Amino acid sequence: MSLSGRALENGTWSYDAINIRDHAHDKHQTVDDTPYGGGAGMVLRADILENALLSIPESKRGKLIYMSPRGRVLDQCYVQKLTQEDNITILCGRYEGVDQRFLDAHKVEEVSIGDYVLSGGEPAAIITMDACIRLLDGVMGNADTAGDESFSNGLLEYPHYTKPAAWTDCDKKNHDVPDVLRGGNHAEIKEWRDAQSLALTQDRRPDLLKK
Ligand code: ADE
């Protein structure tokens, strides 16, 4: 079972899923309508979304976020911030968008998982939840794991190696584990790993260094 699945069973976190359609007021359970001003797609209605939101007890609503490619891009720093919240309500959009008046009236924070467009916000919500849940106390076995990993110090993580020390690939090419990692000198190992982290970040994500 996944870490987040086990943590759910343990009661470390819990969730309720709300179907916006259950809060529509016509027999077709309509939740959207055409955009004022014209254009493609449909827009989720502010009144229906508010009905859905108010169905959540006030004490459970917590921070309100809307998964949207227009939002601030999720990064580890923001994930950490989200984990400080006791409750979070995540709105997953479909169609073209959400009536802006709902977002304004309820001070909804828009969050994107990257510069691409999904057909709905649900996968983005699952990614956001998973990134948060693994940081909750007791979810990861080894408390140190989250401290060393990519982004926790603004850099990408150094490379890992395990047994066997010498490995021959299918093209008969030999690959050894770097000597420094087998030498047992912790200061040298740390220095090597830090240098690797920095070089990898410079090569793959120079934008992180600028931050
Ligand atoms: N919904 C559609 N695209 C999205 C994205 N990139 N991030 C968050 N929610 C989305």
Description:
The chain is α/β, with parallel strands linked by helices and 211 residues long. It has two domains: 3-133, 3-Layer(aba) Sandwich (Alpha/beta knot), CATH 3.40.1280.10; 152-210, tRNA(m1g37)methyltransferase, domain 2 (Trp Operon Repressor, Chain A, Orthogonal Bundle), CATH 1.10.1270. Helix content is 37%, strand content 15%. The strands form three sheets. Strands 1-2-5 form a three-stranded mixed beta sheet. α4 (76-82) links the parallel β3 (63-73) and β4. The longest helix is centred in the C-terminal third of the chain and has 19 residues, at 186-204. The protein binds adenine (ADE). Adenine is lined by residues 67-69, 112-114, 116-118, 121, 124.
**SSE order, one letter for each helix or strand:** HEEHHEHEEHEHHEEHHH
Backbone CA Rg: 23 Å
CATH architecture of the largest domain: 3-Layer(aba) Sandwich
Low-pLDDT segments, ≥5 res: none
Please tally the β strands and state the result. Answer: 8
Query: What is the name of the CATH topology of the largest domain?
Result: Alpha/beta knot
Present as ligands are: adenine
Beginning-to-end CA distance, first to last residue: 36 Å
Portion in helices: 25-40%
* β-sheet strand percentage: 15-25%
The CATH superfamily of the largest domain appears as: SPOUT methyltransferase, trefoil knot domain
CATH class of the largest domain: Alpha Beta
- Count of separate structural domains: 2
* Strand arrangement in the largest pleated sheet: 1-2-5
Mean pLDDT across every amino acid position: 95
What is the molecular shape? elongated
Number of helices: 10
Characterize the biggest β-sheet.
Answer: 3 strands, mixed
Summing up helix and strand content along with how strands pair, one would put the structural category as alpha/beta
